[in-house]
Design goal:
- The complex is a heterodimer.
- Chain A contains 15 helices and 11 strands.
- By secondary structure, chain A is of the alpha/beta class.
- In chain A, the strands form 2 sheets. A 6-stranded mixed β-sheet of chain A has the order 8-7-2-1-10-11, with helices on both faces. Chain A has a 5-stranded mixed β-sheet with strand order 6-3-5-4-9.
- In chain A, helix 5 packs antiparallel against helix 7.
- The two termini of chain A are 30 Å apart.
- By secondary structure, chain B is α/β, with parallel strands linked by helices.
- Classes of the chains: A alpha/beta, B alpha/beta.
- Chains A and B meet through helix 12 of A and helix 3, helix 6 and helix 13 of B.
Chain lengths: 351, 752
């Protein structure tokens, strides 16, 4: 076939909230000291908003849970790390054929795909990340739907959906599926709803159901007002057509030449905010419609690796049918390259 | 890839780069037709995807990874009309509709059309529509039932589906399709000549002419040639322009703006006015009929080249350039990046697993069971009103036709989704009164008099079943089904198979048939061959011989269709409809009491029935043969022969275990089959017994058979020369018991 480059074709996956943890403190300093431009654009903007700079946050001696996980700080930090990682991908070796992301990672995906320029990116990401400064709306809770070998159990899912419906029978409760996250479901809802659901879900692996600290009820109708507010603050003119295909949280593909930026704006600040984010579907579309040679997960952190692997197993991708297959594959010739993992990062960045 | 494929592929880039593009008389702009610049690019991207999938399938075939290369090249304009309709508008598509499917897949997020089509090309069991059984276009999510049809046999059901949309609304039934749906059905110019097309379009127009809502857009993609035979110039327009009841529209399918605009007009007529449209779309055929077709053998090279220059992708490129939407290099960038993407996905798809065993292949012949949502118990008052006209007769024994009629009354009351259709079944109540009063009780929406066309009757039923109805179509006489049998064999029966059980069309097809009618002779009303059904995988054939069985079996058939989504033939022996007596006039032995629903058996009973306990002779028979065998049994008993008579009742699948259990208890087995010696069920019975005993050390019983002659049924008493009779059965039984062979001619002759 003509015109096929010898480079590896990669789909880039952008991380969501909760990926800049204790271990990631100093990520920018350590790995991206050369990318001062990224940090300065972010911090100039944050300075104008009277917010602490990410340079300072990244450079702190101690990781501060409350400070580093707060939306207004975590979003900008994670964005800067991810963008810096994206710029570190060795383009002599990889062609990026599509970009996707999880949850807040969608905003980062918009940025790395060029649907937002550097200034628009931080404006959107910081604005959306700062929506909860007056108090977090509701919360999120995560629960696994696979067995120990990461094989999805459809009966578990059916049962959970039934419990969800039962919980929502009570007028004071409001809980929704917030994210389809590979082998996990993330629920978003109000406190009483989440508590009621928590009581129905059997405890598994000694930690689930697990409430996500400092997370709001993202991707649920509880954020309808946030969506309206976001649209009043942020203009559709921030958006431009992406340079690369973008796969969103419904599994829709936004192509560079046919992208309607008004629709992209509506999706990003509308549907994406108030409806479930189907990261599993985004990965399914990425692998099936682009058949990439590698999936590159941008740092910080590598927590999406498991969820992505669970998606691969669900679709028997590369013949993987359970966790042990995946681990063997990763050892032999990793298909998922998480830039937050040192060994895998080496395969992505220029030597 | 052959040179021509390569040339068409490369020409696109060369022509776009050099600006050598086909011209058009159409001066429409995107804005004028209501499309944004991005939407035009989006349509073009769809067209390019479809093209590269076609080209890739030919590459894969060369590599032994793909098996059927018929494609959509030249027809990619169907992307534009796909955009004009909703993804819930059920679409019955012919095989050149790749771009339609891709464009529709963009209307529902999360679809993976490239991967899915490549799985289909490579016959992978992961193919989400057919599970690796055929290269079909289809998707449950996108409301595209798969068609294997190459000859427009999908048109009658499209017509039926369209009819069913407003029918469901009138009946306030919770149907599969939304109330304001329309139906899309496309086909080629060559197929437009087929009788199925003519029949379906005629039926559509016949209904629309009398103001029955028929929200359907028939789309004839006219590429001017059917394999190697050219369509006469102007033929499609001349043939369809002035049909009563149907609006004809034309557009240039090479121009996505014209196509979109005209399709929107068509959509308005169908959706808002609920009227049918014939949308004539000009296309070209590129890359030959299929990969195996050497076009140069029958077509001049100049024609081939001229056609290739009319490539719809080049026309779309011209539109993009003329409207300053993209530059030539951007257009080429889309073209080449899609090409490499398709190639990359193809490599992965080709490795996905294939069907490995017969069991896997056959897994979807029988569809999955479903939850019944249209059934309710009927209270006593309602039932009394229903049977008010029969209140003095209900407690009396009745013949088959009357009992079956009552069973249908009860079933229609219990199952709101049952709709009957057929010739003269309405007010007249059918030729034999089996549907008497049904129209009075349930109205013309549920008991539909159709026009005289069996393809349309079955197509109506199949289409209605796609929308959640449980149709009970009637074929007036068995001989009439033969002109329409492909609707059962090629369409209804294959739907679960080719959709991996996702699409189904359960129904009970009532057919009045078989011979022995007194006073109404001749082949067409006395046909005694149903061989046409016997080899259809998954099909159930029921044939009651008496009223009590007819009631019980019809109830079972409705359950089989309603709960298990099965396709059922209910073969009714006409000669036994009104038969009351078995041995002598007035004995009433062929009448039965009516078992009301509350006393009916709950389970489906697909077993044989047994009369008598004799061990000398076992007669295996059904229908009229059972009736005659029961007469013969009396004579044989008087002669001292202990006999048992088995009514097979279900002719497919046979209750093999039940049959063998009876056979094992007897010394002699006589098969009595009122159908022809060749291809009648007698052959299967003979084979069954032989195969069972072949692997056993037990002594096989003596066997013989008496069947009808390999003849058509003549008029009057001459019919009996070629049909088994009670006397003939007695004679054959005696011969069997005595170990003497009787010539078939002798057996039949003695019946005179």
């Amino acid at each position: 076939m003509n015109n096929v480059s010898q480079k590896k074709r990669a789909v880039v996956i952008c991380p969501g909230r909760g990926t800049y943890n204790k271990e990631e403190l100093g990520y920018l300093q350590r790995l991206h000291a050369d990318k001062t431009e990224i940090v300065s654009v972010v911090d100039n903007y944050r300075q104008s908003q009277g917010q602490v700079s990410i340079a300072e946050l990244d450079g702190m001696e101690q990781y501060n849970m409350r400070l580093h996980t707060a939306g207004e700080n975590a979003s900008a930090l994670i964005y800067a790390c991810a963008l810096a990682d994206y710029q570190s991908i060795n383009r002599d070796e990889y062609d990026v054929v599509a970009v996707t992301g999880n949850s807040m990672g969608w905003y980062i995906a918009l940025a790395v795909a060029g649907a937002l320029d550097a200034k628009a990116s931080i404006e959107l990401i910081n604005t959306m990340g700062s929506m909860m400064t007056d108090g977090v709306i509701g919360g999120q809770m995560i629960y696994p739907i696979t067995d120990e070998q990461w094989r999805e159990n459809s009966e578990t899912v059916t049962q959970i959906k039934q419990w969800l419906a039962e919980v929502n029978q009570a007028p004071e409760n409001e809980v929704y599926i917030s994210i389809y996250l590979g082998g996990y479901l993330v629920f978003g809802g109000n406190k009483s709803g989440l508590k009621a659901l928590e009581q129905k879900l059997p405890m598994v692996q000694d930690r689930y159901p697990m409430n996500l600290f400092n997370h709001a009820a993202f991707h649920t109708p509880l954020l309808k007002d946030i969506s309206t507010k976001a649209k009043s603050i942020l203009s559709s003119e921030l958006f431009e057509a992406p340079k690369l295909p973008l796969i969103d949280g419904l599994g829709q593909v936004w192509q560079p030449y046919s992208c309607d930026t008004n629709k992209l704006y509506d999706y990003t600040l509308g549907t994406q905010v108030t409806d479930a984010y189907n990261f599993s579907k985004a990965i399914e579309v990425a692998i099936k419609e682009y058949a990439p040679d590698k999936l590159i997960i941008l740092g910080p952190g590598a927590t999406l690796g498991g969820a992505v692997a669970q998606c691969l197993i669900k679709h028997q991708w590369l013949g993987l049918s359970e966790k042990s297959d995946f681990i063997a594959k990763q050892k032999a010739d990793p298909y998922i390259l998480a830039m937050g993992i040192e060994e895998q990062r080496k395969q992505v960045v220029a030597k | 890839m052959s040179d021509r494929n390569q040339l068409v592929k490369e020409n696109f880039i060369n022509f776009v780069r050099s600006g050598t593009l086909p011209t058009s008389n159409c001066s429409l702009t995107p804005e004028a037709v209501g499309l944004s610049a991005q939407e035009v690019v989006d349509l073009f991207e769809t067209q390019v995807m479809s093209r590269h999938l076609d080209l890739q399938s030919r590459v894969m075939q060369k590599q032994g990874k793909s098996f059927y290369t018929i494609g959509s090249s030249g027809h990619e304009g169907n992307a534009a009309y796909a955009k004009a309709f909703r993804p819930s508008d059920m679409a019955f598509l012919h095989y050149r509709s790749g771009a339609f499917v891709i464009q529709r897949s963009k209307q529902i997020p999360g679809q993976t059309p490239i991967y899915d089509m490549l799985l289909s090309f490579s016959a992978s069991q992961d193919d989400p529509i057919s599970g690796g059984r055929h290269k079909v276009l289809g998707s449950k999510t996108l409301a595209i039932p798969p068609q294997t049809s190459t000859i427009a046999s999908h048109l009658p059901k499209a017509m039926g589906a369209a009819f069913s949309v407003d029918l469901a609304k009138r009946l306030q039934m919770d149907a599969e399709m939304p109330d304001d749906s329309i139906v899309i059905c496309n086909f080629g110019d060559a197929s437009s000549n087929h009788s199925t097309t003519q029949g379906a379009i005629n039926s559509t127009a016949w209904a629309a002419y009398q103001s029955i809502p028929m929200p359907i857009v028939y789309i004839c993609e006219d590429n001017g040639i059917g394999i190697s035979t050219s369509t006469p110039h102007g033929w499609i327009a001349a043939n369809y322009q002035n049909r009563a009841g149907i609006t004809y529209l034309y557009c240039d399918g090479l121009n996505i703006l014209d196509t979109y605009q005209t399709a929107k007009q068509a959509e308005y007529i169908a959706r808002v006015q609920r009227k049918p449209v014939f949308l004539h779309v000009r296309t070209v055929r590129l890359l030959g009929h299929a990969g195996s077709d050497a076009e140069f053998v029958y077509r001049k090279m100049a024609d081939i080249e001229a056609t290739e220059f009319q490539d719809p992708l080049l026309h779309s490129a011209r539109i993009l350039l003329e409207n300053n939407i993209l530059t030539a290099e951007q257009i080429i960038d889309i073209y080449t990046s899609v090409e490499s993407r398709v190639a990359q996905v193809a490599d992965v798809a080709a490795l996905k697993p294939k069907l490995e065993t017969a069991e896997q292949v056959m897994q979807s012949i029988v569809p999955p069971a479903r939850v019944v949502k249209h059934q309710h118990a009927v209270d006593d008052d309602t039932r009394s009103a229903l049977f008010a006209h029969e209140k003095h007769n209900l407690s009396k024994k009745q013949h088959l036709a009357k009992l079956l009629n009552w069973a249908l009354l009860d079933l229609m009351a219990e199952h709101q989704n049952i709709v009957m259709c057929g010739e003269d079944i309405g007010k007249k109540g059918g030729v034999y009164n089996v549907t008497a009063k049904l129209c009075d009780r349930f109205g013309e929406n549920r008991v539909i008099n159709t026009l005289l066309d069996e393809q349309s009757i079955l197509g109506t039923a199949i289409g209605m079943a796609h929308n959640g109805f449980l149709p009970i179509p009637e074929i007036q006489f068995l001989a009439y089904v033969h002109n329409a049998e492909d609707q059962i064999r090629g369409e209804a029966a294959t739907l679960p198979f080719f959709s991996n059980g996702q699409f189904t069309n359960p129904m009970v097809i009532r057919i009045a048939g078989l011979a022995y009618q007194k006073g109404f002779g001749g082949h067409f009303h006395n046909d005694n061959s149903f061989a046409v059904f016997r080899d259809i995988p998954g099909l159930i054939i029921a044939c009651p011989s008496n009223g009590a069985d007819a009631v019980e079996m019809m109830r079972s058939c409705v359950k089989l269709a309603q709960e298990q989504q099965r396709l059922v033939i209910f073969l009714e022996p006409i000669a036994l409809y009104m038969t009351k007596d078995l041995h002598e006039e007035g004995d009433g032995l062929w009448t039965s009491d009516y078992v009301p629903p509350k006393d009916a058996i709950a389970e489906v009973n697909q077993k044989i029935s047994v009369f008598g306990e004799g061990k000398s002779l076992c007669i295996l028979t059904y229908g009229n043969g059972y009736f005659l065998s029961r007469q013969a049994e009396k004579t044989l008993a008087e002669q001292g022969v202990s006999c048992r008579v088995i009514d097979l009742r279900w002719l497919a699948p046979l209750d093999e275990q039940g049959i063998i259990e009876q056979v094992k208890q007897c010394e002699n087995v006589l098969i009595v089959d009122e159908c022809r010696q060749t291809a009648s069920i007698s052959e299967a019975l003979m084979t069954l017994v032989h195969e069972v005993y072949a692997g056993s050390d037990k002594q096989m019983p003596n066997m013989s058979r008496i069947t009808a002659q390999d003849s058509f049924i003549p008029l009057g008493a001459a019919a009996y020369h070629v049909l088994p009779s009670a006397n003939g059965i007695v004679e054959a039984a005696n011969a069997l018991l005595q170990g003497t062979a009787v010539d078939q001619q002798v057996k039949l002759a003695s019946s005179k």
